[in-house]
Design a protein that fits this description.
The structure holds 2 protein chains of 2 kinds. Chain A is built from 8 helices and 20 strands. Chain A is an alpha+beta fold. Chain B is of the alpha+beta class. Chain B contains 4 helices and 9 strands. The chains are: A alpha+beta, B alpha+beta. The interface between A and B is medium-sized, with 15 and 10 residues.
Chain lengths: 374, 127
Amino acid sequence: MSDNNLTRTPLHEEHIRLKGRMIPFDGFDMPVQYSGIIDEHLAVREKIGIFDISHMGQIEIKGPEAIPFADYLLTNQISDMKDDSIKYSPMCYPHGGQVDDLFVYKISNSFILLIVNASPNYSQKDEQWIKEHIGDFDIEVFNKSDEYGAAAVQGPLTEKLLNPFFQGEISLADLKRFKFVYGKMFGKDVLISRTGYTGEDGFEIYTLNAEDIVDIWRNSLQEGEKYGIKPCGLGARDTTRFEVCYWLYGNDIDETVNPLESGQGWTVKLNKEDFIGKDALLKVHQDGLKRKLTGLFVPQGGIPRHGMEILSDNKKIGYITSGNYCPTLKKVYAMAYLDIPFTEKGTKVNILIRDKNIEAEVVDMPFLAPFNKR
Amino acid sequence: MSNKVLEGLFYTKNDEWVKVEDDLGTIGISDYAQDQLGDIVYVEEIKKGTIVNQGDIITTVESVKAVAEVYSPISGEVIEANHTIIDEPSHINGDPYGKGWFAKIKMSKPEETKELMNASDYGDYRK
């Protein structure tokens, strides 16, 4: 079933052909699963999974002051980035809450590419916010979200699969984590980065013509068959990122949450000259945190879902941002904002699941270490 | 989509099934229901001795992406609950009419099955 009011990515027909179960997500008609979320999740952890990420937005900042502008717009430090490198950064409101979280691709001193979340309508929220803050900066901003196609190929065997089919200045085997390179993949013009949001090694492939992503998708599936590749939907995208505790905008972070309490503090450079949100974040830093994102282990009693309340002695002390069954660990975990006195490892709290007090215990995050830290 | 519908069972509009043997009804959820839910990862325990009316919530199941309440297709007393689905909820996905059964209920109103669908009607309902 497909909803005609929803935007389709260039891979839409492929999803239908592969019997993907389609759901609305951020205004797009996207596959939530094909063979099953757990099956797809394990393919990513053990072999290879391929995700359609064409719904993600691409916003280009071009001009002589691209770097100072990005440094003003974002909390992370952009001025020290080398060409062809990538950084993760929150983009904050003046009050310290977040407009979005995104990846910064430094193409040159006069060209920054931002990979942003899809919502709504090809990342219009981000586009508007960025354009409103151009001010006197000598730059131009282009929302190119519908001109790029994109797929994430993730899992331990991904380099082996993709390397033979890539031609560029360096081989994919030599492409380091958080670096990107332009070249040809299966004969199509691409920008390819050694990044992902699953906690596994892998690559994200951006085609410079949106439709070219179809060839990348089909060839990856065909050539990857011998490695056990599986097409993966949003369900497995969520469970893989959740196990390694990567933030999902709209769940774990949003306009009400600042990046110091969410654990994104390493991306906030308070010694930068000026950036949107700096005053508010400085104050949070000086006053100390009142709550923070905390990991919870839930031995039994159900799956905690976004928004559920957390109690201690019947007093509300926080709420769940994400919770799920972790297919690799075969256990249920959750992330929650908890008042600081309850965030020490081993603390017992209660999650209110369908009017029942379900016991949970504070544990370290991430629940599963990313591949390079296992 | 072609989900399996087992002959000889009665079905509800909420996709539960009941298999009747004398005054004993074994209940579960249909292949369609498990397929819609996706990987089931949690089932709330059903307590032996619970008295249920037709249409009462008898348990809750959760998949990775969804929560669903399961309604009893018949009235009566739970005389046995399937504990293996508590430890292995995936049985409900793999074998919804067999290993994935939920409970056995001693029926107090056997005539209630007349209000339920037979396999062929249910097959049409979820075509």
